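Tokens for chain A. Residues wanted.
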């Protein structure tokens, strides 16, 4: 199941990266992204979000995301 969800995330990230211009035209620009990331900041935000989605999906498929979360977050909540 992890591989299926990971592949789904990778495909979604690639499609989001490919069609970010059309998606931005459909949903509109983010004023805060334009303010903090400069002109074209909404497009930059969408690209960063798509690349992070791809990276996190690959990490999910390989199990490294679970190890990272389990190793770093659990120490703050009484684990290990």
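Reply:
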């Amino acid at each position: 199941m992890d591989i299926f969800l990971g592949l789904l995330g990778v495909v979604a990230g690639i499609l989001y990266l490919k069609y970010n211009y059309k998606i931005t035209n459909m949903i509109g620009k983010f004023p805060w992204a334009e303010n903090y990331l400069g002109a074209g900041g909404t497009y930059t935000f969408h690209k960063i979000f798509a690349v992070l989605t791809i990276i996190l999906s690959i990490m999910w498929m390989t199990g490294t995301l679970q190890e990272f979360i389990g190793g770093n977050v659990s120490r703050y909540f009484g684990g290990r």
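The chain has a mean pLDDT of 90. The longest helix spans residues 41-62.
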